[in-house]
Amino acid sequence: MAQRTLAMIKPDAVSRGDAGKILARYEEEGFRVLACKKTTLSRSEAEAFYGVHSERPFFGDLCDFMTSGPIYAVALERDDAITHLREVMGATNPAEAAEGTIRALYAENIERNSVHGSDAPETAAEELAFHFSGRELL
Fold first, then answer.
1. For 48, which of 41, 42, 65, 83 is 20 to 30 Å away at the CA?
2. What does pTM read for this prediction?
3. Residue 25 lies in a domain
4. What are the tens digits of pLDDT across the range 4-25?
5. How far is CA 124 from CA 18, 64, 80, 81, 82, in A?
């Protein structure tokens, strides 16, 4: 059964011009792009989106990074979308990411790791609603 998830292409990948390659990879992996928008997160938006990490020592740096330039928010759909996207992205630390994964190919380091993907169905629903109205999810 088709499942929806959110992917974000982070400022480091956007600034290097890798967004198109990453979007193409999603489609090669059988994802259907339901919606895609280029936007810049405000500080309050970044803090809200990453609120689950607010007590962690990297929270401030993460919010600084995510507001440093444009991102692409992408709504994706396919069977087992959440698990498959996380496999395609690779480990958060690109030094540990499997060969051929997005992070192994494009990420600079654990902080500038090029992409984000929802980690569970509940999170995907929240994250999709954060970035897209129902009308935008075609």
1. 83
2. 0.95
3. yes
4. 999 999 999 999 999 999 999 9
5. 23, 23, 12, 10, 8
